[in-house]
Amino acid sequence: MLGQFKTLPQLLDYFRDEQVCKDYLADHRWNGNVTCPFCGHDHIYITNRGYKCASKACHKKFSVTVGTIFENTKLPLRTWYAAIYLVTSHKKGISSLQLARDLGVDKKNAWFLLHRIRETFFDETPKVLTDVVSVDETFVGGKNKNRHADKKKENSQGGHSDDKTIVMGAMQIGGIVVTQIVPDRTADTLLPILDKVIAKGSMVVTDEHSGYFRVCDNFFHIAVNHKQGMYTNNAFSTNNIEGFWSLFKRGYIGIYHWMSPIHLDRYLKEFSYRYNSRTVADMNRFSDTVTRSNGKRLTWNQLTRKVS
């Protein structure tokens, strides 16, 4: 296996120059079978500066970074790799301010870099949970009184949920978690999502929120009545998904302090990825993220465009 490292200094020692970084990316992206990122053709010429497609219909030149999160970057791949290692190994994440200090880049570059790394954590094939799955929602967004003036909501009732974002989470026994932002907590919204992410016939454990009353149509359903002080029902509980929300909110409060609703899904995917790979060695989580970088390019305009 390329690159045996357990610490950041070891990683930086291994990736001593840009060519080593490029070779590592090429190996994880193509595994010895280079293909054109424009047309998919697998007959490729090697040039002094990269590659050229041999297809007569294409003939385009490209580098190993084209079509990845690294495309058109002005930062060395060695800096990128250090950032990936820090993001994937810090349990509660790392802020753009801290990353800027650690890497010696400005805050804007660090912020952009972090969001491009988070883009790799989106799964093209959604996970389907089985067996026993606990489900719970949470409200994300700090108290209005603690927000910066340009982020305060008019007529907000302090910490009330009317100006927060609702996120639903589902966790399979053993700790695989899936999250999704939802517009409301109604059955018409929640149940179709559960049908997509949970295998039919699984056991679903929820609280007694009315939005879950029809869960039993497709799943075995157990409801835990928190209002009556009950936190388990025949040894079933929602403690594991609630524990994930606690971890996420510790990162929110202690590391990031605020997350834009526009970009919240990327933060959720970041925390989900680290949580789902928590038994994996840091080195393997790093290499998996490099592999995932293919096909996940995110431009500045895409990231900063206004959502209507």
Automatic annotation (TrEMBL):
Transmembrane segments: none
Pfam families recorded: DDE_Tnp_IS1595 (PF12762), Zn_ribbon_IS1595 (PF12760)
Domain spans labelled ISXO2-like transposase: 128-276
InterPro entries reported for this sequence: IS1016-like_transposase, Tnp_ISXO2-like, Transposase_Zn_ribbon
Region (Disordered): 144-163
Biased composition annotated in UniProt, kind: Basic and acidic residues: 151-163
PANTHER family associated with the record: DDE_TNP_IS1595 DOMAIN-CONTAINING PROTEIN (PTHR47163), SI:DKEY-17M8.2 (PTHR47163:SF2)
NCBIfam families, per database record: transpos_IS1595
Protein name as catalogued: ISXO2-like transposase domain-containing protein
Species: Flavipsychrobacter stenotrophus
